Amino acid sequence: MSVARSLVLACCLLPSAVCRLESQTRVVIVSGLGGEPAFSTAFAAQAEALATALHNRFGIPDANISWYGEDSVGHTPHYRGESTKPNVEKAITNIAARAEPSSQFVLVLIGHGAGDGADTRISIPGPDLDARDFARLLAAFPTQRVAFINLTSASGDMIATVAAANRVIITATKTAYERNESHFGAYFVDAFTKDGADTDKDGRVSLLEAFRYAQLETKRFYDNGSLMQSEHAQLADDGTKEGSAAPTGRAGDGALARRFFLDGGKVATLAAGGDPKLATLYSEEFALQEQVDLIRAKKGQLAADAYDAALEPLLISLARKAREIRTLEGRE
After folding, report:
1. Quick one: CATH architecture of 25-263?
2. Given its phi and psi angles, is residue 23 left (phi above 0), alpha (psi -120 to 50 degrees) or beta?
3. What pTM does this model have?
4. How many CA atoms lie within 13 A of 289 on its CB side?
5. Is residue 121's pLDDT more than 70?
């Protein structure tokens, strides 16, 4: 089967797959030991703020969001227990056992990191979880889209061990030697709890948008304080063992993150608000955009006429869908 024909077949299958993804995202948030009250409070606040936003703003069911943290954080709607190694491993293993092939799994780490190379770890109560542990646990998701978001200090070295195909890796630092307090994590959470990260105004926040937002705000923090920046976030999603500080989102690092959303976003909001027709139109528009991205990512593998033949009808359909949405919203 030719590449062009394969792309056409894949595009025919994409709309239903995209719609399923919106209701099949499961998230595990792990906040580690603070070491002192200020950090414990900050890590717990970030974890709960992210969990709350994913439910309230982006429509992920409470049952699909699990937060494990220090036992002192108290009980909230998303708190499932202490962030011990056995608890986290059991939670991820259970999700993997019942995960649909086309679903998404997102693992977020918040806290202090240490070690280097494959020994890089997050500090949690009892034995720590290191890069090898996470690689092993995530291997249980062979067909699902996976996002591993490590917002801890000294997190950069995990990329080489955890990276794999169909997986987005985000780390707060470039290497394990950037061990000072990380501010990137707080801003990454802000990307979902505040307005401003949705740069293309489609009602959703992609992982690439969240990464860029947090990266910009982190730099602003250091610039405003006339401080030397001691953390340099990285993103890797092309299966290689190295991350990038400037993913383009078109080819190489960033292409998958650009299409990776934690939620149904505008679709979920419209459906919940009693406007199923508009929700369906947005869902179809997102599916068409996914198809366009897929073909554009394969441009180098197609002859020019085959590329144009595959892309043109999708762009026409996308334009028509956008017009339907504008008309229904009264913008035309």
Report:
1. 3-Layer(aba) Sandwich (3.40)
2. alpha
3. 0.81
4. 16
5. yes
